[in-house]
Design brief:
heterodimer, A: two-stranded antiparallel ribbon, 34% helix, flat, B: alpha+beta, three-stranded antiparallel sheet, ATP synthase F1 complex delta/epsilon subunit N-terminal domain-containing protein (chain B)
């Protein structure tokens, strides 16, 4: 990956983090699998978030959000 | 012996290899155990080779090459090659380039 020297890998120069790069690559590989491996793999892509807002220094009741997210963040 | 797809090129690892941390690019990892050869496609990740000749390969996805569907790979490659041509922002270009890299690596894994 020696293109513009100090710029590092092209995805880093475009503002992407390693984690999102790696997750995108993984998501592309999963989408090319034959069944039944594909359905098993797509299960691994699911991300669950438990979110609670904090008010006056105390957390409120958490809410669970389920999203199918391939690569958190950018 | 294993051969891992490091960003600096295919890297062969035998017992006694110097301790190394290598970043991997999407590609094929070949495992030679005696006369048995197994090939796995790794999506990206790292290879840690320790001083005691233990090697850890870390990948988000590592699948046997015969789990890949070549039709889906070729369709994806055509799609991302086209996206690369029409991308405008840096981020779109990077995503399209990643797509082209990953799908062409999968394509060579299946045809090579």
């Amino acid at each position: 990956m020696a293109s513009s020297g100090a710029a590092g890998p092209f995805w880093r120069a475009a503002g992407m983090t390693y984690v999102s790069y790696s997750n995108k690559c993984a998501s592309m590989v999963r989408s090319c699998l034959k069944e039944p491996h594909r359905t098993e793999a797509l299960e691994r892509e699911k991300v669950h978030f438990s979110i609670s807002k904090w008010v006056d220094g105390k957390p409120e009741k958490p809410s669970i959000r389920e999203e199918i997210d391939s690569g958190c963040g950018r | 012996m294993i051969i891992v797809p490091a960003t600096t090129g295919q890297m062969g690892v035998l017992p006694g290899h110097v301790p190394t941390i290598a970043e991997l690019k999407p590609g094929v990892m070949t495992v030679h155990e005696g006369t048995d050869v197994s090939k796995y496609f790794v999506s990206s990740g790292f290879a840690f080779i320790h001083a005691n000749s233990v090697a850890d390969v870390i990948a988000v996805e590592a699948v046997p090459v015969d789990h890949l569907d070549s039709n889906l790979v070729q369709k994806g490659l055509a799609e991302f090659t086209q996206k690369l041509g029409s991308a405008s922002t840096d981020l779109e270009k990077a995503e399209a380039q990643i797509g082209v890299d990953v799908y062409s690596a999968m394509n060579s894994a299946l045809t090579g």
